[in-house]
Specification:
The protein is mostly beta strands. It contains 9 helices and 29 strands. This is Semaphorin-3C.
Length: 560
């Protein structure tokens, strides 16, 4: 005797109900994800309760094959009168398909349903169904989001029933006579006004329901393909919430996707030509101090907050943080966040009612194209001026990290080196001592010739601007060592010819401070064996991982 999984009705005025006991055709070790009441028509007797779950396949009892399912029962189901007494007599289920078609015609399936979000529309009979799936096989791993329409779902439930026949006992569409009323029809509804209860159904209807609970056709997503897919990443999606946002160029669905690594991604998917789409990750936030899988999320439109839960607790995030996009019109436009627009001074919350507001300031926003050349005329000259300037010191033979993050997650970053006393600029390309990360540029085994101005530039949609300028001074290892060994005579540094005039002045002042021990420890941390360079890069990324961050394109390592 196996596990007795069931869908129960145990409260209310109606009789207690459940699914057929120990019947693997109905349920086979299911994991329920979501349940939703969705009306079928204006007649309330047609109302149905929809269940979203995953279960083991009965076709492969010795394999871990899973199927994602959508099932339903009539809300006014009273069970049968001789068969299926106190058991659902309208229960049906269908496979929920989410797959990527391959060039060879073979589909790659995401079969593990993780979460469902019901996006209500003006017609409560036709909400939009968003579902998160994952695949965790030994060959292929990833996550996907698929979107379904109620029209497609109803078409499947009104289609052929699955039936096993033939010499190999394979699933086939049932071609025999369908009893009346059609199995799965609700009593007293649009098609059965004379039948007030499922107990009035003929025995052949009830018997058919018990042996044919599965629909032959699966439910495919809109356009028969996922809305977005993630593969070759170290996380999977666990939850989803969707918010509808009105922007100046239309309405957008903003997806909030929780992961098993404790992060929440904020994503929009823009339509392009020929059913192609463009996915934009607007932001990624680490929610909890100690990372834990995100279990559920709820949107509060009134408070403009996203409530997030994990095993460690519950917290909330703002749906929009327009200030993180900077103080330049170009950065605000390139972010392409439908919540935000440039108001003439800052990047701030956009609302449809603020298209014309008191001071007459123009709201600049272009979610679909993100074109600052068109949207930010008269403001673009400030983009490069707003680039930050920094001065940084490094010691010959050690490592230096030049931090730079683009405001827009879609921007590509380039590093340009300008030597002192020279107007020539050189783009830094593949070199063994260089490592580009999400957060900036790591230079290993510094050389005196690395001294110069490093320009961090961001390019997106043919718009290029400077994000950061770092003046790097590389100090002579011999001079610094001498100063550390003889701190009472740091003036020896001043006699070193390496470096630009005054390059050691600030270091001389530092060495004479009481915090000399901390500086010594800092320098020793840099003077690691060259074999630990890879470890340095990993430690650096681990340190960055513990804070809230904007998401950027994957880390690119420069090869030798």
């Amino acid at each position: 005797m196996g596990t007795d999984a069931a869908i129960f009705r145990a409260m209310g005025k109606q009789a207690a109900m459940r699914t057929d006991q120990y019947n693997s055709r109905w349920l086979n070790d299911p994991a329920f994800v979501h349940v939703q009441l969705i009306p079928d028509s204006l007649e309330r007797n047609d109302d149905k309760l929809y269940f979203f779950f995953r279960e083991k396949s009965t076709d492969s009892p010795h394999s871990p094959t899973l199927y994602s399912r959508i099932g339903r029962v009539c809300l006014n189901d009273d069970g049968g009168h001789c068969c299926l007494v106190n058991k659902w007599s309208t229960f049906l289920k269908a496979r929920l398909m989410c797959s990527v078609p391959g060039a060879d015609g073979i589909e790659t399936h995401f079969d593990e349903l993780q979460d469902v979000f019901i996006q209500q529309t003006q017609d409560n009979k036709n909400p939009v169904i968003y579902a998160v799936f994952s695949a965790s096989g030994s060959v292929f791993k990833g996550s996907a989001v698929c979107v379904y329409s109620m029209a497609d779902i109803r078409m499947v439930f009104n289609g052929p029933f699955a039936h096993k026949e033939g010499p190999n006992y394979q699933w086939m569409p049932y071609t025999g006579k369908i009893p009346y009323p059609r199995p799965g029809t609700c009593p007293g509804g649009t098609f059965t006004p004379s039948m007030k209860s499922t107990k009035d159904y003929p025995d052949e209807v009830i018997n058919f329901m018990r042996t044919h609970p599965v629909m032959y056709n699966p439910v495919y997503p809109i356009h028969r393909q996922p809305l977005l897919v993630r593969t070759n990443v170290n996380y999977k999606f666990t939850t989803i919430a969707v918010d509808q946002v009105d922007a100046s160029d239309g309405r957008y669905e903003v997806l909030f996707l929780g992961t098993d690594q404790g992060t929440v991604q904020k994503v929009i998917v823009l339509p392009k030509d020929d059913l192609e789409t463009e996915e934009l990750i607007l932001e990624e936030v680490e929610v909890f101090k100690v990372p834990a899988p995100i279990k559920s999320m709820k949107i509060s439109s009134k408070r403009q907050q996203l409530y997030v839960s994990s095993v460690s607790g519950v917290t909330h995030l703002a749906l929009h943080r327009c200030d993180v996009y900077g103080e330049a019109c170009a950065d605000c436009c390139l972010a392409r966040d439908p919540y935000c627009a440039w108001d003439g001074k800052t990047c701030s919350r956009y609302s449809a009612s603020s298209k014309r507001y008191a001071e007459g300031r123009s709201r600049r926003q272009d979610v679909r194209h993100g074109n600052p050349m068109r949207q930010c005329r008269g403001y673009n000259s400030n983009a490069n001026k707003n680039g930050m300037d920094a001065t940084q010191y490094g010691v010959e033979g050690s490592s230096a990290f030049l931090e730079c993050q683009a405001r827009s997650p879609q921007a590509s970053i380039k590093w340009i080196l300008q030597k002192d006393n020279s107007e020539r600029k050189k783009e830094l390309r593949s070199e063994g001592r260089l490592l580009k990360t999400e957060q900036g540029l790591l230079i290993r085994s510094l050389q005196l010739s690395d001294t110069g101005i490093y320009h961090c530039t961001a390019t997106e949609n043919n718009f290029k601007h400077t994000v950061m300028r770092v003046r790097l001074h590389v100090l002579s290892a011999e001079a610094v060592t001498a100063a550390l060994l003889h701190p009472e005579a740091p003036s020896a540094l001043a006699s070193q010819p390496a470096g630009p005039p005054g390059a050691y002045d600030e270091l001389v002042q530092l060495l004479s401070q009481p915090e000399m021990g901390l500086i010594n420890q800092y320098c020793q941390g840099y003077w690691r064996p060259s074999g630990s360079a890879h470890s340095d890069a990993k430690d650096l990324q681990d340190q960055k991982r513990a804070r809230n961050r904007r998401n950027h394109p994957p880390t690119e390592e420069l090869q030798t």
